[in-house]
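Appendix B, Record 12. Input sequence as logged:
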Amino acid sequence: MVGTIYFANSHCDVIATRWLEPREDDTAWGWPKPRSSIVSMSLEQIGDNDVGCEIFARNGVEIYDSVAGALGCGSDGLNVDGILLIGEHGDYPDNELGQKLYPRKELFDRIVRVFRESGRSVPVFCDKHLSWSTDLAREMQQTADEMGFMLFSSSSIPLCRRVPPVDLAGRDRVEEAVTLFYGPDECYGYHSFEFAQAIVERRAGGETGVEAITVHRGDDVWREVDAERISPELTDAALAAIVRASPGCVKEGDVRENSKGDGEVSAFCIEHRDGMRMTHINLSGHLSTWSLAMRIAGRDAPVVTVPVVDDATHFHAHFGTMSRIVEDAMIDNRPPFAPGRSLMTAGLTDFMMRARAQPGTRLATPALEFSYDPFGYEHTFAM
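Logged structural output:
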């Protein structure tokens, strides 16, 4: 395992600790116990609140001061069968757009250096988006393709059970969709992109690419809704879905007033090449989960769904679902979903942050005008 920092409830903790110290609660989330073992780790930063060193010590797992040391387990070469790359959290700077410059590409390059020197490679899972940069993410995927190893990345949210279950299965044409989310625009907007993309990529024709994105902020969001340039029907349907499925995740009172209390409401309006319009609305202060509402051709009512997400009470047990899917993929050496999704959501996150710096301006996204086939990748979770 290669990580940035390991404190309580960090991504290193909620993922790696599940391998080392399985929890009974995780059985209900598909993770009764691992079929593999974490045998080594490197950490970029060890903070005053570190818990990883103690957890690894009591489980007899060595921590190394370099990526090469961890991959070789203290010897030369490559002596592991798969790699968890968890580059989330840590003391890293932001750029002028507010993008957190996590060193996932830099850590990936160190991993690849070991692959090249040893003459072999193994699967790599990158937690969250491949990189803050579309270009760097594409370089990572191209390197994996050229060297012939499996690279995949994901948020935990699209892997959660959905209420109600929904699968477009290549049959339905989505005309417009609205996804609601909360939290910081970059790191939680990525979760929103992942959650929605995992569903809408399976529309009729598959994913055809994205041609532009526009970001609205503050009162301009509600002006777009009131003018029906963002569907009020779908926005209301997505909110109602949360009230039904996760009522504890919605605050009482007026959504517009509540959303003012936790920063600035924002909306990311995405134009897909096949004509589908997707809008992600950040309603921090009013809700604390995700939901999706879709207008599907030939159906009278919106199709809605909400992910079933756990909280700190059970150590964020939905990461148990993700851990199982990641482990199965590594053991089988078969990606659980199309690699194109990872490139698309990394690119959407990057271009959203660029558009966010110039609100109201339509930003073309030529780097995202690619199609991919989402079918034939069937991860085993209840949809």
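DSSP finds eleven helices and 14 strands in the chain.
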